[in-house]
Specification:
With 256 residues, the protein is mainly alpha-helical. Helices cover 46% and strands 9% of the residues. The protein has eleven helices and six strands. The strands form three sheets. Strands 1-2 form a two-stranded antiparallel sheet. Strands 3-4 form a two-stranded parallel ribbon. Strand 5 and strand 6 form a beta hairpin. Helix 1 packs parallel to helix 11. The radius of gyration is 20 Å and the shape is globular. It starts with 6 loop residues before the first helix and ends with a helix.
Length: 256
């Protein structure tokens, strides 16, 4: 619904890295990730560039390095079991379809979900979202900040106050590891099950971190108590390195 990126991810989205990447790939916009897969020279070039992109965590698995270089880190490695990590990189995501990335860039630059041409086609129709919602964010920011769920939660609280809306920020988690982490069944899934029970029982109580009494008052766009605060060193240096890599790609394309 809403997308609030980290400082480094937002900077990379504003740079034409995705258009340049799509130009490098050409018509074959599916990038093979496995080392054993056959790759064209264009695909090999993009993978080499992806390995050089800075990110929060590095990995000794090449497939993981290429994926996170293009998409960004989607989980904290300490939250993922070695078995699952192997399955993700060697069996599950053997290739990366890139066709949707230009649309994803439009969404991220807009800050909320938009149509194919960048038009606001969805959030202008809150009446179509008459349902209960649960928003779960990781407290250790990776791709998006907890403000993403904060905005969506308040939006639904305003436009659909007759339904159950909950928001939870889970400590120690980032993005995808919320659902696939080794301790997700302990720290994340109980919130999902609890929300399903509340929705089925029709209890219209709004939740923000801790359960409290329902209120149908106007929307409060106050500060998010879980506002991002762990950008660290890479939040500063990553945009600079991304700019350097972009200039390097331009130089390579000019010389090619």
């Amino acid at each position: 619904m809403f997308f609030r990126l980290t400082a480094s991810s937002s900077f990379k989205m504003w740079l034409p890295l995705i258009p340049v990447s799509m130009a490098i790939l050409g018509k074959k916009n599916i990038l093979p990730l496995l080392n054993s897969s056959k790759s064209t020279l264009r695909q090999q070039l993009l993978k080499s560039i992806a390995r050089s992109i800075p990110r929060y965590e590095r990995c000794n698995c090449d497939e993981c390095e290429v994926f996170s270089g293009i998409f960004g880190n989607v989980f904290w490695h300490e939250n993922i079991s070695p078995t699952l990590h192997y399955w993700l990189n060697k069996q599950n995501q053997t290739c990366l379809p890139m066709a949707a990335f230009p649309h994803l860039r439009k969404i991220c630059k807009s800050g909320f979900i938009v149509g194919m041409n960048g038009e606001n086609s969805y959030l202008i129709h809150p009446e179509r979202m008459a349902l209960s919602t649960l928003y779960i964010s990781g407290e250790r920011t990776l791709l998006v900040t907890p403000q993403t769920s904060f905005l969506a939660y308040n939006y639904m609280k305003l436009h659909q106050p007759g339904f159950t809306h909950e928001r939870v920020v889970v400590e120690g988690f980032g993005h995808s590891d919320l659902l696939i982490g080794e301790e997700s069944h302990i720290k994340v899934f109980p919130h999902i099950l609890s929300h399903i029970r509340l929705a089925e029982e029709g209890k219209n109580c709004l939740v923000d971190g801790e359960r409290r009494n329902c209120s149908k008052e106007g929307l409060s766009w106050g500060n998010d108590p879980h506002e991002e605060g762990n950008g660290g060193f890479w939040s500063f240096i990553s945009p600079l390195v991304a700019l350097w890599l972009f200039l390097l790609m331009l130089l390579f394309l000019i010389m090619a």
